[in-house]
Amino acid sequence: MAPKIVPSSFNSRCLTNLLLLYRTQPLSCSHSFSTSSNHCNSIQLQSNDPPLIFDPTTVRETLSSYCNDWRRAFEFFKWAETHHTFQHTTDTYNRMLDILGKYFEFDLSWDLIQRMSKNPVSYPDHTTFRIMFKRYVSAHLVNEAVGTYNRLGEFGLKDETSYCNLIDALCEFKHVIDAQDLCFWKNSELGLDKNTKIFNMILRGWFKLGWWSKCRDFWEEMDKRGVEKDLHSYSIYMDILCKSGKPWKAVKLYKEMKKKGIKLDVVAYNTVIRAVGLSEGVDFSIRVFREMRECGCEPNVVSHNTIIKLLCDNGRYREASKVLDKMLDKGCSPDVITYQCFFASLQQPKEILGLFDRMIVSGVRPRMDTFVMLMRKFGRWGFLRPVFIVWEKMEELGMSPNESAYNALIDALIDKGMLDVARKYDEEMLVKGLSPKPRAELGTKLLSNGASDDELLQA
């Protein structure tokens, strides 16, 4: 009987369920490719259907479902190949590398890369090494990341793209000083000493760190070095000025851009809308919003969210609601941030819960921080019933509460004097391996030699 090809999503669910069959079995994962675990060998599809053919998308999705358990992900990776004659592609290898890198399994990652290089179907690409840069730098192994770049000649990938990926990874994970040193040292050597893209990455890196004086110094350094600033340079620096509490300077920069004839895109306009709103008021932001449309730049969900937030911050909820309705009329779907703008400003529990239900019915799924925001807000107001309504909705949607959600609920219970119930949830947190806040009311003490909850979460 011929093999049956079924949709990827079905395959992925099937494979995930299959892996669940041995989830609690002891692992015998080996770093050797020639050896497979015994329990993997014994797994068979409990069906008389023809064997399934695994496509790369199915395998990638199944690996993603085990992204927090590298051993099981790796066992599946080997099992698919050895027992279903699946030939891994560059894409499935890259997904496995990302999972291994997350758990610092770099030696095993390099074994995979060497194996990839022996097969044209799975040959390493720029994405492969972008993953390696990202995982090394996120583990603060900067020298190893630079060493990886220096090895790329072996794979024919030591080029401008790889260099940009390295600089981007350093900036993304806050190693901006290293990125800047590398830029000033290597750029001339590579003929990239005036490469605007690389300078923009470093400028954005200083932005992520929130080092505003460094942002200003680097902005001026770009001029000294003769680097031509483009739309993205201006967008980043306008955002920096807004976040550093100088929105009027961002507006000035916007006017400078217009004089230079730089055509703004939706990202730049969104920054300008916020800057104008903060410095001159929401009515002026609405003018820029209209100008944006007139210039042929269609507002996106972020544009609408910015206007809605400015209106809500000024207590103009009816106008904000009209903007929400217009979004739907124009086919621009609201997201969770849209609704959170309302939740942050509305003052009536009934009104908030009504909008919360409307959000869910419309297909917008709340994030965990949405639930935490609402529970904290209702808890501060002393309304316990709405806190439980939100908690129950979280459980209905199949979301597992994190530390912040538990702590918001427990704080609300303690404020109402319901110590026994609060203690129950406090104990439930411990059973799940989460870190509850030390609370004198419940008789709990600081953990880890007096480390605070915040310190524990950052550890």
TrEMBL record:
**Does the record's keyword annotation contain Repeat?**
yes
Q: Mind telling me which PROSITE patterns this protein's record contains?
A: PPR
Key words, A-Z = Repeat
Instruction: List, alphabetically, the InterPro entries matched.
Output: PPR_rpt, TPR-like_helical_dom_sf
On whether Repeat is a keyword of this UniProt record, the answer is: yes
Any one Pfam family here would be PPR_2
The record's PPR repeats, renumbered to this chain, cover 195-229, 230-264, 265-299, 300-334, 402-436
PANTHER family, per database record: OS03G0856100 PROTEIN (PTHR47447), PENTACOTRIPEPTIDE-REPEAT REGION OF PRORP DOMAIN-CONTAINING PROTEIN (PTHR47447:SF23)
List the NCBIfam families hit by this protein, alphabetically.
Answer: PPR
Query: What family does the database annotate?
Result: Belongs to the PPR family. P subfamily.
Know the name of this protein?
Pentatricopeptide repeat-containing protein
The species is Cannabis sativa
